Amino acid sequence: MPLRNRIDNKKGKIPDPAFILEKIRHFCSYRERSEKETELKLKAMQLPTAGIRGIIVQLREEGFISDERFARAFVRGKWRVNRWGMKRITFELRSKRIPEKLISLALMEIDEDAYREVLERVIWKKALEIRPKLKEENNSGNILNFRDKLFNFALGKGYESDLIREILDELKI
Fold first, then answer.
1. Same domain, 20 and 56
2. Which pTM value belongs to this model?
3. Is 116 in the same domain as 103?
């Protein structure tokens, strides 16, 4: 029987709890998940609200979900791979209903010196990318300061404005 039909609750049938639990365990073991993500997945499976809370408690007790573990993995991934700043990471974790205490703990995964180095590389790489485009824009009349473009880019990545200015000054941009 196709998976879709086994989970389908539109016909008023209650899904098989053992199957749902097996499916959600696989969902949580594939990568780190927050409680909110897990809850949304269970709601998408059209599980009754009372059953969702029980499953989440069971998954937490079995070690399949942990908001602390999720927050730490999220910080490491978004910082190392996506090169996000702490402000953006914090915003995203808040949107996933991670408590402030766990966010602060997870952000300690980022080394301050490495954080500065990454921001320098991000700014430098973007500078090399937009400098030729900027010359073309200046000829067409659309003038925005080179430094402002770099500042706005780094700000959009979630870095702190004071740190961005400091690094732009160090790079003499």
1. yes
2. 0.78
3. no
